[in-house]
């Protein structure tokens, strides 16, 4: 109950921040150079055609009027109409967000497990060969261009070995997967579509691996650093001096204390992962949120840009909120109030 | 302790050697290849490595080895200049805000908060898409998205330094404020910046290449690693590795050089503090 109240209050506090983001994006995208109407008209369009198109999307109205209309729509869940496609933005967003979240969540989960295991392993061998190897590997991971890594994995997995599917799409169209959430793995599981599940998993393999490799590096470095601190702490030394057995020492004293700082970092890495996803989606023709937002940005599709920026900001703050709650659950000194 | 220091020095040396080799290769490019970076060999588009073209040619018949070498000039140059600009602008803002405080400090920190409410690559992507690509714009974009972090870092340092006895001593002996700031506060507040800046250069290279990969960076046919990888995307599916693997490998090695250098400096600072 207390957690719920805390969440509710924090979400309410976020409203002014999000309103600021909405106002800023709305103004900036209109002030900066570029015209969304020119991109949808043919080369032979006359000035009358342009004026008609402008009126159709309400762009002939004064800016304050446009903004009030937009804000009114937001309250009722209407994100406007895409200038490029003519379809409602909310609908397009709904089918685009699932594939991206699926990619990010699976990769982040995988990276968290690997980073925790390797980071603690490395810290317990601090200064020795194994530790140095892990640290150098993390530095290489930190220096990898994710889009290039994706291409190299395609080269190896598809072109050379033939294990992975071609980097186009998320599921084999022959499997007749019906669209529910857009997250293909989830959709296949919900509809009991076995072949589609296998195909989705197959297609997820390389992009997830790409993203996981680039985000595991910063997590690993941080886990190692905080494990080193715990190992040097008085509490740990006392537990060790009392002759506690290895397993209890590891689980009860090292693991939990080490993981306390991880949620905040994972939230930060989540933001980093969203940036990487734009590039990785491009490599694998994933047709997710990243590619959609990029297209909107390039064509100055005002409603699409506004919706994507608002969504990224919303996700970012919500993820940090979740991190706070998890942190409180892990660290007995922190109380949610 | 000496062991930590030795590991730190080996990281610093390795990183510096890698960077020196890349810089040399970039400078000596005309001696290392007979082809110009934008020179087209009409007889041999997509030629495999070997023969007249050491690393083959791309879709346009341009020599990959030559382009990879010349691209180092642009990639390194843009990254270093952009980070230098970010360091100077960010540090100055942080210095002034941190030393005097007051409303200027409040305004600056709110602006920094807004910048840091978005993932940095997303921010760079949005700004580059809205303002357009081109080399100069990219320098500005990368400097702009990095400056807030330096402002915050230097401000925090300055706030603790200004309370120290030696600043008080300088003040009571009648030194002018700008003199104190320039001679005593600034040099000491830059300590963390020295560690972050090399890491940041590597990150700037990745950002530049990423933007170019998406078509927002250096316009064709400019030789830039990200743009080269982008052009080679279609070749990968056909099994032609040489158009995209070499530029990425150079990029990786160069960023790794910066990472090793930054990590080594960090490690040395930690070891000395202990």
TrEMBL record, chain A:
InterPro entries: BPD_transp_1_N, MetI-like, MetI-like_sf. Residues 97-323 form the ABC transmembrane type-1 domain. Pfam families: BPD_transp_1, BPD_transp_1_N. GO terms for molecular function: dipeptide transmembrane transporter activity. It comes from the Bacteria. One of its GO terms (cellular component) is plasma membrane. Keywords: Cell membrane, Membrane, Transmembrane, Transmembrane helix, Transport. Signal peptide: none annotated. It is found in: Cell membrane. PROSITE patterns: ABC_TM1 (PS50928). It is a multi-pass membrane protein. The chain crosses the membrane at residues 12-32, 103-123, 144-164, 200-220, 259-284, 304-330. Belongs to the binding-protein-dependent transport system permease family. This is Peptide/nickel transport system permease protein.
From TrEMBL, chain B:
Residues 72-262 form the ABC transmembrane type-1 domain. It is a multi-pass membrane protein. The chain crosses the membrane at residues 7-32, 76-100, 121-145, 195-218, 248-265. It is found in: Cell membrane. Keywords: Cell membrane, Membrane, Transmembrane, Transmembrane helix, Transport. Belongs to the binding-protein-dependent transport system permease family. This is Peptide/nickel transport system permease protein. It comes from Thermocatellispora tengchongensis. The lineage of its organism: Bacteria, Bacillati, Actinomycetota, Actinomycetes, Streptosporangiales.
């Amino acid at each position: 109950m207390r957690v719920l109240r805390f969440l509710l209050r924090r979400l309410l506090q976020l409203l002014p921040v999000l309103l600021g983001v909405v106002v800023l994006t709305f103004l900036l995208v209109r002030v900066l150079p570029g015209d969304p109407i020119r991109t949808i008209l043919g080369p032979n369009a006359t000035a009358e055609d342009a004026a008609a198109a402008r009126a159709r999307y309400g762009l002939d109205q004064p800016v304050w009027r446009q903004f009030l209309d937009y804000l009114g729509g937001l309250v009722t869940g209407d994100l406007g109409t895409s200038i490029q496609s003519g379809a409602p933005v909310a609908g397009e967003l709904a089918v685009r967000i699932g594939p991206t979240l699926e990619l990010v969540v699976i990769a982040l989960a995988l990276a968290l497990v690997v980073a925790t295991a390797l980071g603690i392993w490395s810290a317990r061998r601090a200064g020795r060969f194994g530790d140095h190897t892990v640290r150098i590997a993390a530095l290489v991971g930190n220096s990898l261009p994710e889009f290039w890594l994706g291409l190299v994995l395609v080269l190896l997995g598809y072109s050379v070995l033939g294990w992975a599917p071609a980097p186009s799409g998320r599921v084999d169209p022959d499997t007749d997967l019906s669209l529910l959430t857009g997250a293909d793995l989830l959709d296949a599981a919900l509809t009991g579509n076995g072949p589609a599940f296998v195909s989705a998993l197959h297609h997820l393999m390389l992009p997830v691996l790409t993203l996981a490799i680039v985000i595991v590096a910063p997590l690993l470095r941080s886990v190692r650093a905080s494990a080193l601190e715990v190992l040097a702490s008085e509490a740990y030394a006392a537990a060790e001096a009392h002759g506690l057995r290895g397993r209890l020492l590891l689980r009860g004293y090292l693991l939990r204390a080490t993981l306390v700082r991880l949620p905040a970092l994972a939230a930060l890495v989540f933001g980093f992962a969203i940036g990487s996803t734009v590039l990785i989606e491009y490599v694998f023709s994933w047709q997710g949120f990243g590619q959609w937002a990029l297209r909107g940005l390039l064509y100055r599709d005002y409603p699409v840009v506004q919706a994507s920026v608002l969504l990224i900001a919303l996700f970012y703050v919500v993820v940090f909120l979740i991190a706070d709650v998890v942190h409180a659950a892990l660290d007995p000194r922190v109380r949610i109030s | 302790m000496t062991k930590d220091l030795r590991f730190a020095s080996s990281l610093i040396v390795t990183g510096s050697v890698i960077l020196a080799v890349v810089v040399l290769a970039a400078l000596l490019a005309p001696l290392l290849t007979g082809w110009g970076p934008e020179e087209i060999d009409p007889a041999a588009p997509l030629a495999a490595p070997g023969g007249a073209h050491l690393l083959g040619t791309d879709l346009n018949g341009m020599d990959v080895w030559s382009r990879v070498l010349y691209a180092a000039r642009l990639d390194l140059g843009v990254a270093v200049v952009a980070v230098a600009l970010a360091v100077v602008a960010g540090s100055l803002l942080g210095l002034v805000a941190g030393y005097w405080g007051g409303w200027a400090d409040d305004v600056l920190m709110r602006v920094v908060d807004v910048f840091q409410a978005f993932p940095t690559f997303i921010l760079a992507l949005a700004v580059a898409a809205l303002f357009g690509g081109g080399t100069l714009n990219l320098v500005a974009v990368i400097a702009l998205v990095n400056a807030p972090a330096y402002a915050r870092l230097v401000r925090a340092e300055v706030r603790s330094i200004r309370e120290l006895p030696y600043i008080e001593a300088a003040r009571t002996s009648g030194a002018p404020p700008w003199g104190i700031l320039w001679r005593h506060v600034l040099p000491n507040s830059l300590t963390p910046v020295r560690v972050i800046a090399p890491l940041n250069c590597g990150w700037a290279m990745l950002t530049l290449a990423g933007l170019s990969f998406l078509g927002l960076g250096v316009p064709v046919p400019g030789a830039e690693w990200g743009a080269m990888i982008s052009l080679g995307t279609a070749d990968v599916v056909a099994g032609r590795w040489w158009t995209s693997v070499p530029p990425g490998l150079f990029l990786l090695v160069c960023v790794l050089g910066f990472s090793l250098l930054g990590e080594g400096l960090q490690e040395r600072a930690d070891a000395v503090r202990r």
